[in-house]
Amino acid sequence: MNFKNVHEILLVGEGDFSFSLSVAKKLGSAKKMTATSLDSREELKKMYGDAQQNLEQLARMKCLLLHGVDATTMSAREELRDRRFDRIVFNNPRVWTVGPDHNKQQIKENSKLMEEFLENASGLLSQGGEVYVSMKTCAPYNEWKVVRQAAKSGLFLADKCEFKISEFPGYTNRKGRGKSCNKTFPLDSCCTFVFKHLFISEKLDSLLSLPSSLPLSNELLRGDLMSLDVTGRRP
Fold this sequence. Notes:
The chain is of the alpha/beta class. It contains seven helices and seven strands. Strands 3-2-1-4-5-7-6 form a seven-stranded mixed β-sheet. β4, α4 and β5 form a beta-alpha-beta unit. α1 (18-27) packs parallel to α3 (51-60). The longest helix has 21 residues, at 104-124. The protein is globular and about 40 Å long.
């Protein structure tokens, strides 16, 4: 993940806000950061022992903190809808419904979560901006088809790299729901997907020279170009 002080940064689906705080400390400021959670501030304090402390530190660093933000409708949120962000981050996304991750309905719901989040992120992304989705890539998470969901909103996979928690001192990933909400979980096979807008005006040869190891093939790119408008988004 590439963060700079000049970037307008939107963090989505935060839990105890330890990731946001780690990024703020690396940058030395949070003035251009907006950190959000689905849960209310009161719920966060009950769920995570260090949430209140993390939120207070972020507030002192001038981070805009928003709660009750749904990743699937966030582009309509009053505080966000007229803004554009250079970096949009969603770590370990998951729909918290009853049932194991390999359940077919759970896979369907998480695929929908990814599709709707990426559609909203596309509308809030600045030209040249990047969306970071960090998640496990083993089964059943690979069945969410995150790259294909992104393509529906005119976003293409620019890079994919291993997520290294050691690069974010102080960050602790949390389960987020139930009696074990404050516990961590293994991040094995976790990668960060980097998505960018697909602009027709960009040189096509730069798109077609993407590494063949990336799951979005040149053939798929050519096919998608036919259904996109000049901004790279579907009509």
